[in-house]
Amino acid sequence: MVKICLECQSEPEERGPGSALRELLTDGETASTDTCSGARLTDFCAVWDAGVFLVSAAGKGAPSGVKKRRLNEAETLNSVREAQFQRLEAARPRGLGRGARGPVLRMAGQPPPWAYTAVLLCALSLGGAIEIPMDPSIQNELSQPPTITKQSVKDHIVDPRDNILIECEAKGNPAPSFHWTRNSKFFNIAKDPRVSMRRRSGTLVIDFRSGGRPEEYEGEYQCFARNKFGTALSNRIRLQVSKSPLWPKENLDPVVVQEGAPLTLQCNPPPGLPSPVIFWMSSSMEPITQDKRVSQGHNGDLYFSNVMLQDMQTDYSCNARFHFTHTIQQKNPFTLKVLTNHPYNDSSLRNHPDMYSARGVAERTPSFMYPQGTASSQMVLRGMDLLLECIASGVPTPDIAWYKKGGDLPSDKAKFENFNKALRITNVSEEDSGEYFCLASNKMGSIRHTISVRVKAAPYWLDEPKNLILAPGEDGRLVCRANGNPKPTVQWMVNGEPLQSAPPNPNREVAGDTIIFRDTQISSRAVYQCNTSNEHGYLLANAFVSVLDVPPRMLSPRNQLIRVILYNRTRLDCPFFGSPIPTLRWFKNGQGSNLDGGNYHVYENGSLEIKMIRKEDQGIYTCVATNILGKAENQVRLEVKDPTRIYRMPEDQVAKRGTTVQLECRVKHDPSLKLAVSWLKDDEPLYISNRMKKEEDSLTIFGVAERDQGSYTCVASTELDQDLAKAYLTVLGRPDRPRDLELTDLAERSVRLTWIPGDDNNSPITDYVVQFEEDQFQPGVWHDHSKFPGSVNSAVLRLSPYVNYQFRVIAINEVGSSHPSLPSERYRTSGAPPESNPSDVKGEGTRKNNMEITWTPMNATSAFGPNLRYIVKWRRRETRETWNNVTVWGSRYVVGQTPVYVPYEIRVQAENDFGKGPEPDTVIGYSGEDYPRAAPTDVKIRVLNSTAISLQWNRVYSDTVQGQLREYRAYYWRESSLLKNLWVSQKRQQAGFPGDRLRGVVSRLFPYSNYKLEMVVVNGRGDGPRSETKEFTTPEGVPSAPRRFRVRQPNLETINLEWDHPEHPNGILIGYTLKYVAFNGTKVGKQIVENFSPNQTKFTVQRADPVSRYRFSLSARTQVGSGEAVTEESPAPPNEATPTAAPPTSPPTTVGVPGTVSSTDATATAAATEATTVPTVPPVAPTTTATTEATATTASTATTTTTESPATTSRTEIQESAPDEQSIWNVTVLPNSKWANISWKHNFGPGTDFVVEYTDSNHTKKTVPVKAQAQPVQLTDLYPGMTYTLRVYSRDHEGISSAVITFMTSAAYTNNQADIATQGWFIGLMCAIALLVLILLIVCFIKRSRGGKYPVREKKDVPLGPEDPKEEDGSFDYSDEDNKPLQGSQTSLDGTIKQQESDDSLVDYGEGGEGQFNEDGSFIGQYTVKKDKEETEGNESSEATSPVNAIYSLA
Fold first, then answer.
1. How does the average pLDDT of the chain come out, rounded?
2. Beta strand 195-197 with 185-187: parallel, antiparallel or unpaired?
């Protein structure tokens, strides 16, 4: 490190602003021998360290305001420079004393050359320029010398066909005026009518529309822009007119050349301005094909490294394209005549590996065609492109390579052109100088040419002078530093005149390329020009010096609101302007001292930095700018906000494909700021698809797929700050398919299969399944071959003979199976005789006189050879007959003309073209069966109870069976009920018993009924003859539960109970038993029992208190005992909250008919509330459920039914929470009379297929496939008033299903149509129809009652079946659909029951009903016509109004 101290004065030293820095430089010892003893460092001092001067500034004679400002600047810079000096001190050698810290040069004598630079740099630090804000109001107010803003290029080439435009634009205040010089002389524009100057501009326009030659105006132009503060100059603009001369006329003789010789066709284009672009074409305007043998040089000549015979096929013309005139000049074409030893141009020789020898052309070493000789030199200017070119001749055509001596080619700037014949280096700099050489080589030898490159430089800026704006009394500097090769000279001018001839200015000092201004005044304003030049060019720069007196003013809007985040670093800006530069101070809340230090820091530009914002920093801050001309102030209101923080961040997760993932992101933020939460995936904005759900504090992804894997970033942001949290989602997907299957180790019965595993998609592969396909028996069908653990990727496969194998591999992991790999190549094994025979050989008769022999055909892997066939042999068992045989190609053979049910021995043997298979096993088969000839005898019946009997019979002889005895079968039917006038179904039912048994039990009979029974023998052909018909009677049983048990609460004092008679009385009813108990929460009262007569169906309970509820249990009684009870509770009182039932998971939900009111609905506002139940089925009788009629009160399940408006639609919905795994939930049903809308929720992916499965009360199951996006689904084939069960499941995953839901369609007509029924015209019409129906019923009754017995069976479209036996007297049981009774029949006074309609018993499967007859056959039963369910359910009948009662009265 070198210290430089300059002796400036011998006066006593005055401690000034720079003394602290001087003491640092001299370590505080001013009298030491190694320091500037006695010297006064008045102006500057510098330290030289590795080529960098660290300067301090202090001045004498400057105004006090300037001194104060510089003192502040020096003190601010001291802290920075102190750290630099400490680093320099640390770098000094250790162990030296204070006086031996290194060489110290005292500049008492002649200083070294670089010392002047040090002095200059110290001097430059004296000046400080004022920057004028870009605010237009300030710009327009301040005076300003001219500044050139736009000018034409130095070499200005114009098109002679256009007007000439020479641009010169400038700005200043006031606006400058312009004048021009031409060739350094004043250019008087007013004297030339063609020349004009644009308004408010210095741009020259030379107009040639009225004539004139542009060439007359060529020359060097310079623009001068002037106002009262100075003059600015443009560059010297050299104006040239573009030229495109014609090619001279010349006659070119044919060029004669020997084949293989080099050739140069010279272009020599006419000189143009600018130079034209050269290209070669034929006279027919076809481009010349160029390659490394034939190419165009940079000078435009066409070079042939060696001429070939095919070069004669065209001529060659040089073309020059001129840029400005857009014209192309064409030279007369060259014609080649090639002398050759091989006159035939055989095109086949062009691609011959030794083409030249084949054509008799002698091979020769390379030689350079351009440049000539072995060495040359080239000069290039800095910043331009260097183009080096080497074109060589030779046979074969030589290759060109480029090198630089002593180094590598600059790879970032060098590129090869023209088939490696040219090397271009762009933007050349001094380090690109040196020696380059090109090497031309072929198989005969090589040659090289060296090019010495020298890089020169036109002047270029190191430090271009900038405009200088100062306050009065301030110091400043203009620096004009440029470099070039050779070194450029610097010339200063002021207002366009040389500085030497300008008036003297005592405040200005020129030091080489720097002008120093001290104590500037208003009169110092001027425009200075710096012109630096050498032999390669020049640079001209304008820089003005302006002196301003401006009081302080604020540049930012007043009273700004700044909101910042707690604990952050912030900066309050207070832009200001003034000249001299004002000082700025900050105050808080209009009081206190200047803010600086501690948590506050004020920058030189006036900005106040608060290092860490706290709550107490909130308030109003005032900045005050002051200079000698005045002061200005502004205020900023600071608000402190709480930071935005993610307190529950998303966590890394691992999920299986298809599951649901939730990423949490819970945020805490300042409530006065608007929060926005967004998500990024892999640092890109996340597109929220229909599989995703973005909520305020989470992101849920349904049906996760492999593409969802990646990093997820939660971005919580307000307008002031943001917080980020990242998590990674790993998706366990099915593995990718294996690839690159390869067959090796090929053997006759084995092969090794190798594959490359696919990506396991984050779940390890557990197994590989190898499948095969053969193209003979089942082409295109793949079969499993073997299974291997997931750790292997190669396996030996055992093969069968004569199979053309093709293999593929499937990878399996915990998530699922991959797609199959692409198939391997095929491999066929050699053939062999079969090693097995077909399996499952059977012999069975399809008719009574044949036997069909069948077997399972052998597959491709067991055929072992071509033309697989089967040798079928058979003979009767134990007859020692010779074997019958036949060859069959299929899988069955029928033997005809066989006795009935005779055993045969059967053999089936496989055979192919290589031979027969092993000897087959013998299988026993039987010929066809015939109907049995005998019936069971001595059939005995014993009644066990009211619903079961015991049977016993004798065995039939085996020869009468005529086949295999399958079973003994009993046919039985209900003949009548012991209750009078109760309609029964006579549908035949059956019970089977194995052939080795002679007794059995028939159950599920109706009590209190007359039955008939017959027995038959059954073999494989069918039923034999029927036995004698037996009759028996079942005793009385217990009844089923009462129907339609209803609990109504018209007021708070009474509860009304109503019920209907049991569906199945199963005997004579003797009464009803009602048990009820009061309860209130967990408290239960004493049970009360009431007994009623069989005709009573109503009861009223007086409430003990208005708070308690009641639980009722009602059962019917016969002589045998009480039947099943039905239980119901009274509605909840108004002050009791209705419990909310949990969504059912497994039991089905029953939905009532629309318009009903649930017993657990809110009853506080209802005058009367009703609850109904569906009657349960008695276990002692065949299951029969009563049809629920469409009355004002219908069956419903209270806890799961939602009744909606309008009353024609009810809604069934099971509310469930969204599950974590793939599921279907919240199935909703909106039924009507004949249709229902179904919808549901799921978390499957888009495009998933679903199936809606529904079953009616007749157990008919139907399914409807549907897409996920097709909701809601409408079921249109429903029946009115029918109960359905429904579920929804995934077609691809049948195990994933919704809960089962039950609903009921509404009746075709409901009481909601009462508004129509109250109309007079409707009542009249209905009365007329009722009267007509009554008359028809009376006539029909009289007609059917006439004639006594009815042994006649009406014709039907279907033939008689075995269950329609003919009576001995030739008559048939009468059965007709019209014989079913009317619904709504009630209990008669004598206790007999009129049968209600049944919809779920064994009798329902019959096709007709029956009338009731007395002993003499006369009709005493109820006659009715079975109506459509839609009618019967929509019109309930009562005993008082039934037309049947009228018929009873007539009877």
1. 78
2. unpaired
CA angle 778, 782, 785 (to 5 degrees): 115
Please, are residues 908 and 988 in contact by the beta-carbon 8 Å criterion? no
CA distances from 425 to 292, 296, 659 (A): 21, 19, 61
Which amino acid is it at 988?
A: R
1060 within 8 A of 1098, measured Cβ to Cβ? no
DSSP for residue 129: P
Matching residue, tokens 């939660």: 714
- Encoding tokens for residue 190? 């007013």
- Describe the crossing of helices 64-90 and 19-26 by its angle, rounded to 10 degrees: 20
CA distance 55 to 50: 14
Maximum C-alpha span of the chain: 165
Task: Give pLDDT tens digits for 634-660.
Answer: 999 999 999 999 999 999 999 998 899
CA separation for the pair 530, 211 (Å, rounded): 40
Strands 2-5 and 105-106, bridge-based pairing: parallel
Around Cβ 909, how many Cβ atoms within 10 Å? Answer: 20
Is the torsion defined by CA of 1206, 1207, 1212, 1216 positive or negative?
Answer: positive
Question: For residue 832, which of 785, 866, 869 has the smallest C-alpha distance?
Answer: 866
Select from 535, 540, 527, 537 the least CA-distant residue to 491. Answer: 540
Spatial CA neighbour of 1281 closest among 1434, 1385, 1107: 1434
Q: What is the CA radius of gyration of the chain?
A: 58
Q: CA nearest 221: which of 175, 158, 155?
A: 155
DSSP letters, 1099-1125, are EEEE-S-SS-EEEEEEEEE-SS-B---
pLDDT at 110: 39
With a pLDDT cut of 90, the percent of the chain lying above it is 51
Strand, coil or helix: 565: strand
pLDDT band at 304 (very low <50, low <70, confident <90, very high): very high
pLDDT digits (tens, 9 = 90+) for 749-776: 999 999 999 999 889 999 999 999 998 8
DSSP letter at 1145 equals S
User: Who contacts 1324 (Cβ-Cβ below 8 Å, separation ≥6)?
Assistant: none
The residue ranking higher by pLDDT, 1410 or 572, is 572
- Looking at 358-367, 587-596, 722-731, which range is the least confident one? 587-596
- Quick one: pLDDT band at residue 1107, thresholds 50, 70, 90? confident
Higher pLDDT pick, 339 / 1194: 339
Residue 623 · residue 606 · CB < 8 Å: yes
What would the mean pLDDT of 528-543 be, rounded to a whole number?
94
